Amino acid sequence: MEAMQVFSIDYWGGMNARDQADQLVSRSHAQVEGGWRQFPGIGVESPDLLNIDYDPLGIRKRYGSASYQDLSAVMASGDSLVAGIEWTNADSTTMELIVTTTRILTNASGTWGAINATSGASVFAFTGAVTKASLVPLDGHMFIFTNGTGNYIQTTRNGTQIDPQMVSGNVYTDAYGSGTHTITGTWPTASHLGAAVNSRLCVGEEGLLIEYTPMLHESSSGVWDLAGDGAGAFHVTSGEMLFMTNYVPKGGNRVTDEILVVGTSGGIESTTGFEDYDRLNVEQGAEGVLNHKCYCKGNGWLIYLTRNKNLQGYNGQEVIDFGARLRTAIATGPLGAMDLATSETNAFAMYLPEKMQAVLWYSTATTKVNDSAAMVDFKMGEPVPGEPQRSAEARVRVVPWEIFNSADNDWFIHGYVKSSAVIGIKANGTTWTMESGKNDLASVPIEGRWKCPIINGGAPFVTFQKQFIRLNLRVSQNGVWTATIDEYFDGESAIGKTWDMNQYITGAFILDVSLLDVDILSTEGHVRAFDRIDKRAESFQFQFKNADADEDFVLRHANLLYSIGAQVN
What whole-number percentage of the chain has pLDDT above 70? Predict the structure, then answer.
């Protein structure tokens, strides 16, 4: 019999449903004398995982959400929450603002209430019902773009009342200066797409036209002119316009390098200028985007969901496929389960800068509201311009998330990042602090699982001549509960064994805790456990999971001992 071989996992990867499960080991490990060596910083990918996040020590069950605010008392009857943001006005007052179907809610005064109309005598109400909104801070104002018949673009400076709407002849007041300016041009209504590019205001509808103004202090007749001296010109996009945003490529200068990015039904388009000779550039390889809120901006990439049930990234120069590993060759997998009709309405995205993660929510059925999400983790490094996709995938981890019992538990329809928390919005008027607690929506259990790739010991055709000896696991001490480990032999034909691992052990050394002779010891803040496998097979897998409420885990390290060439008696 050959000497004992060792396969260890020190770096944890994301999901890969695209490649064969027995080929994933070679993406993260090299075969060496005595077993396998993992490439530094390259995580081993899983063919099947759910609700996993990354801890400095390993992988963990993702965090849940806790109750933040119930806004039903300040909402109008029949209202739904639509979109939200935290921003700081010209007086350095930080506040939250949430758009509903008919109102604008804010906590500028310290408590939540509805913004008043310009006169301050009554609550402001939109003319038409709002289902889509974009919130754009500029010049110490918050510009509020909404759909809905008769709705003009609205602004607020102090967060307590609405300024005169963006209509020709109305007066606009500088937040940082002392001047007032007359608004000119025919401003559109029901325009929920807006962006600020180099202090220039851009406006769009779900059509083909983009209208824009001169830069903030460029015009003598008024700050916001849509007519005269080339202002109010437009670009014609190649597809139906679904989102627009400003974007500064990584390493660029915000003053000189900021561009306008437009997501259309045909793909991604961009422009670097607003002169008569400038045109929108169509980005090669970009797929049609999903809706007006399906994108977020990370450190070096704009990440978005597509109508092809995919996940792509754009860096101002090129497009990369982030979702390939969440799809199989026949478009199944987590992203393949997307219901397009429902997701076109509800899907949205957020970037969590402290975690260096993009999270993109979508629906898998007409009866579900954003029951699933794709998380893209950049902590190991972002792709660099021109880098081959397989090379970038070695660092960028993708993970599917979902909410348990999604038929009864709608998830968020929008969210925003506060200075102290991440807020998720539900249409019913409740808001939640994300990234907190061990349950979704305070009480819904989270199922977290991670399954290792098929380990054939580098000898896939040596039938029944591998002796799998021992599986060692190390977890952080998280509480007095267990995680379940399933062992699989020869692909996924059968589960060979299931055992439970205690996540917190008070004694220094405890033997025979489980029914399967698992030895467990506790030292230095972690728990170590092993199972004597003692089985001959072609290949081996294990799955680590916990699906109970109020419980989590941090899996730090795993290694497998085996030998090749064992004799069959």
Answer: 91
**Interacting residues of 400 by C-beta distance below 8 A, sequence separation 6+:** 15, 49, 50, 51, 326, 334, 372, 373, 374, 375
* Per-residue exposure over 302-334, b if at least 16 CB sit within 10 Å of its own CB, e if not: bbbbbbbbbbbbbbbeebbbbbbbbbeeeeebb
- Check if the beta carbon of residue 293 is closer than 8 Å to that of residue 99: no
Structure tokens at 354: 């402290």
The mean pLDDT of 240-264, rounded to a whole number, is 89
Q: Is the model's pLDDT at 193 over the cut of 70?
A: yes
User: d(Cα 444, Cα 434) in Å, to the nearest integer?
Assistant: 13
Instruction: Give the tens place of pLDDT for each residue, 117-160.
Output: 987 779 999 999 999 999 999 999 999 999 999 999 999 999 99
pTM score over 0.85? yes
Q: What gap in Å lies between CA 412 and CA 424, rounded to an integer?
A: 6
Going by DSSP bridges, is the β-strand pair 44-46/12-15 parallel, antiparallel, or unpaired? parallel
Contact indicator for 351, 375 with CB cutoff of 8 Å: no
Joined tokens for residue 112: 């939540």
Structure-block tokens of residue 7: 């396969």
All structural domains of the chain: 5-62+448-564 (2.60.120)
Instruction: State CA 193 to chain mean position distance.
Output: 21
Q: What is the phi/psi pair of residue 27, to 5°?
A: -80, -20
Q: Are 110 and 93 in contact (CB under 8 A)?
A: no
Q: Which residue has the tokens 């944890």?
A: 12
> How many of the other CB atoms lie within 10 Å of CB of 506?
9
State which amino acid sits at residue 551.
Answer: E
Closest CA to 467 of 532, 556, 393, 410: 532
Parallel/antiparallel/unpaired status of strands 281-282 and 509-510: unpaired
Cα–Cα distance measured from residue 522 to residue 528, given in angstroms and rounded to the nearest whole number: 6
Q: How many angstroms separate the CA atoms of 557 and 528, rounded?
A: 9
Return the number of other C-beta atoms located less than 10 Å from residue 40's C-beta.
7
Whose tokens are 């490529």? That residue is: 249
Backbone angles phi, psi at 342, to 5 degrees: -75, -40
pLDDT over threshold 50, residue 508 = no
DSSP 482-506: EEEEEEEETTTTEEEEEEEEES---
Largest interatomic CA distance in the chain = 95
Q: Are strands 5-9 and 52-55 parallel, antiparallel or unpaired?
A: unpaired
Phi, psi of 20, deg, nearest 5 = -65, 140
What would the DSSP string read from start to end of 13-31?
A: EEE--SS-GGGSHHHHEEE
| Count of positions (residues) in the chain | 569
Averaged pLDDT of the chain:
89
Residues 254, 217 contacting (CB under 8 angstroms): no
Which amino acid is located at 67 in the chain? S
d(CA 257, CA 272): 7
**Averaged pLDDT, 495-503:** 87
Rounded mean pLDDT, 503-524: 48
Q: Are 166 and 175 in contact (CB under 8 A)?
A: no
Q: Are 101 and 133 in contact (CB under 8 A)?
A: no
Q: Which of 32, 292, 350 is nearest to 146 (CA)?
A: 292
Q: How many CB atoms lie within 10 A of CB 529?
A: 24
